[in-house]
C-alpha cells in the first residue's frame, strides 16, 4: 500500500510538473499559430485551410483551434486552456496581442498614406537563357524536383528576369514572409543611416542598460556580425529565447538587450535573432517618433527599390520586428538582391555607402567564412557547386536570396520548406541554374 502511495505521489508530481512546463509553452504554441495564420491570410491573401494544412501542420501547432474573423481581421488560436490573438491593421500588418486589447491597438492608425504603384523596373531577360531555365523553374515549383514546397521562384541575370514561377494561388503581387531575410534589410537600413551620419557601426552603442558592465563595449558591427557575446538560445524547437521573444514579449529588442554578456564582444560567433531586434530598436531610437522612422525607411530604402506598401510588422512597442516579419513580393526581394549585386546602387543612384557591400560580405572573425554582416557567405563552401563569392539572405523554412557577383545572378526562393524532410536541395538547384548560363 505504501509503495502504491509513493508511485501515485511521483506520478502526481510528474503530471503537475508537466502541466506547469506546458503552460510556459502556451504563448509559443498559440502565438505562433495566431500570428502566422493572420499574416498569411490578411497580408498574403492565402486561404486559411491551405495555411493550416501546410504551414501550421506540425508539432503542437497543428492542434490549435483557429478562428479567423474576417470582419475584424483577427485570428484567435486556442490550445487546451490557452489562447492568443493576432490583429491585422492596414499598413502595419499583423501584431500578436500582448498586454493590450485589439481595440487599443487599432486606435493606432498607420501614419503613412498608401503609395501609388510605380512602373515595374525588372524587365524580361535574354529569351534563349529564359527558355533554358524554364524546365528548371517548372521542375522546382510544379514538380518539387528539388524537394520543398516553393511558393515563388525568381532568377535575375544582369538585372533582368530570366525565370519566374509561382505556386497556384500565389502571384507576382503576393507579399510573402521574409523570416530571417529581414535581417539583411536591417543591414541595408543601418548602411543608409551610416551614409547619412546617423550611426557609427564601430563605436560602442549608447544603450543605457549596458553602461555599467562589459556590454558597454558592444558595437553595431558586433551585433550585425553575430558576435555581440550576449547570451542567447536560437533553438526553435523548445522554450528558447527566440521563441519567447517572438511569441511572448511586447518589446522584442528590450528583451534581447537585457541578456547578460557571455563572451567578450567581437570574439565568439553565435546566430541570434535577438541581435537584429536590438539593432532595429537602436535605429528606431535615432528618430523622434514611429512616423519619422517609418517615413525614413520608406523614402531611403523601400522607395528607391520600387517597393510599395511593404509590411514590416511591428511588435507591441511599435518597432518593426527586424529579425523576422517583413512581407514584400518575390520581385521586391529580387530588386533588393540586385541592389547588392550593383554595389549598393539602384539604376545608377547610390543607396548604400561606398564599401558597404564589401563590408557586408567580409567574414566575421569567428564565423569560419560562413557569415558576414546579417548575410550568410559561401566562403566555407556550404554550397560546393556555387562560387565562393556567393552570399545570401536566408530565412526560416527555406526563404533565400542568393547573390552571385561572378555570375551576375540573383536567385529568390520563397515558400514552406522546413528541415529536414522537406528542405530544398539549394546546392543542386544553383548548380543547374549556373550550368545554363
Q: Could you characterize the architecture of this molecule?
A:
By secondary structure, the chain is an alpha+beta fold. The protein has two domains: 2-106; 135-435, 3-Layer(aba) Sandwich (Beta-lactamase). It has helices at residues 2-42, 48-53, 102-106, 127-141, 182-195, 220-224, 241-248, 252-257, 273-284, 290-305, 330-341, 356-360, 426-435; strands at residues 65-69, 74-79, 82-89, 93-96, 150-157, 160-166, 176-177, 311-312, 326-328, 345-346, 349-350, 376-377, 391-395, 399-404, 409-415. The N and C termini lie far apart (79 Å). Residues 12-19 have low confidence and may be disordered.
Morphology: globular
Strand content: 15-25%
Radius of gyration using CA atoms only: 22 Å
CATH architecture of the largest domain: 3-Layer(aba) Sandwich
Topology:
Elements: H1 2-42, H2 48-53, E1 65-69, E2 74-79, E3 82-89, E4 93-96, H3 102-106, H4 127-141, E5 150-157, E6 160-166, E7 176-177, H5 182-195, H6 220-224, H7 241-248, H8 252-257, H9 273-284, H10 290-305, E8 311-312, E9 326-328, H11 330-341, E10 345-346, E11 349-350, H12 356-360, E12 376-377, E13 391-395, E14 399-404, E15 409-415, H13 426-435
Antiparallel strand pairs: 1-2, 2-3, 3-4, 5-6, 5-15, 7-9, 8-9, 10-11, 12-13, 13-14, 14-15
Helix pairs in contact: 1-7, 5-9
What keywords describe this structure?
437 residues, Beta-lactamase, 6-stranded antiparallel beta sheet, 4-stranded antiparallel beta sheet, 35% helix, 16% strand
A few lines on this structure:
Helix content is 35%, strand content 16%.
Amino acid at each position: 500500500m505504501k509503495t502504491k502511495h509513493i508511485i501515485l505521489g511521483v506520478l502526481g508530481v510528474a503530471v503537475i510538473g508537466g502541466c506547469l512546463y506546458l503552460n510556459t509553452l502556451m504563448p509559443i504554441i498559440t502565438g505562433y499559430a495566431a500570428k502566422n495564420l493572420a499574416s498569411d491570410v490578411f497580408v498574403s491573401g492565402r486561404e486559411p485551410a491551405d495555411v493550416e494544412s501546410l504551414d501550421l501542420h506540425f508539432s503542437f501547432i497543428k492542434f490549435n483551434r483557429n478562428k479567423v474573423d474576417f470582419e475584424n481581421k483577427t485570428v484567435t488560436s486556442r490550445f487546451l486552456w490557452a489562447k492568443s490573438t493576432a490583429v491585422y491593421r492596414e499598413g502595419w500588418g499583423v501584431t500578436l496581442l500582448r498586454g493590450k486589447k485589439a481595440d487599443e491597438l487599432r486606435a493606432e492608425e498607420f501614419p503613412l498614406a498608401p503609395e501609388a504603384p510605380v512602373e515595374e523596373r525588372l524587365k524580361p531577360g535574354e529569351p534563349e537563357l529564359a527558355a533554358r531555365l524554364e524546365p528548371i523553374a517548372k521542375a522546382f515549383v510544379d514538380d518539387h524536383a528539388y524537394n520543398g514546397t516553393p511558393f515563388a521562384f525568381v532568377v535575375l541575370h544582369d538585372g533582368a528576369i530570366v525565370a519566374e514561377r509561382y505556386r497556384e494561388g500565389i502571384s507576382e503581387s503576393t507579399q510573402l514572409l521574409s523570416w530571417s531575410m529581414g535581417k539583411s534589410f536591417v543591414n541595408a537600413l543601418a548602411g543608409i543611416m551610416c551614409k547619412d551620419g546617423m550611426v557609427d557601426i564601430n563605436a560602442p552603442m549608447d544603450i543605457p542598460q549596458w553602461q555599467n558592465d562589459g556590454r558597454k563595449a558592444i558595437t553595431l558591427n558586433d551585433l550585425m556580425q553575430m558576435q555581440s557575446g550576449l547570451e542567447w538560445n536560437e533553438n526553435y524547437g523548445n522554450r528558447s529565447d527566440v521563441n519567447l521573444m517572438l511569441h511572448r514579449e511586447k518589446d522584442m529588442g528590450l528583451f534581447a538587450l537585457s541578456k547578460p554578456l557571455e563572451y567578450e564582444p567581437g570574439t565568439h560567433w553565435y546566430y541570434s535573432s535577438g541581435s537584429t531586434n536590438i539593432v532595429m530598436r537602436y535605429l528606431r531610437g535615432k528618430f523622434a517618433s514611429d512616423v519619422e522612422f517609418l517615413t525614413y525607411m520608406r523614402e531611403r530604402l523601400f522607395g528607391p527599390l520600387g517597393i510599395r506598401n511593404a509590411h514590416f510588422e511591428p511588435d507591441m512597442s511599435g518597432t518593426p520586428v527586424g529579425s523576422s516579419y517583413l512581407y514584400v513580393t518575390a520581385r521586391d526581394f529580387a530588386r533588393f538582391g540586385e541592389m547588392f549585386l550593383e554595389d549598393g546602387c539602384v539604376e545608377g543612384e547610390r543607396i548604400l555607402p561606398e564599401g558597404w557591400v564589401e563590408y557586408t560580405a567580409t567574414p566575421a572573425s569567428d564565423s569560419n567564412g560562413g557569415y558576414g554582416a546579417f548575410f550568410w557567405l559561401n566562403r566555407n563552401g556550404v554550397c560546393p557547386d556555387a562560387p565562393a563569392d556567393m552570399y545570401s539572405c536566408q530565412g526560416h523554412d527555406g526563404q533565400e536570396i542568393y547573390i552571385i557577383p561572378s555570375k551576375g545572378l540573383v536567385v529568390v526562393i520563397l515558400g514552406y520548406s522546413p528541415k529536414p524532410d522537406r528542405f530544398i536541395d539549394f546546392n543542386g538547384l544553383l548548380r543547374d541554374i549556373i550550368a545554363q548560363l
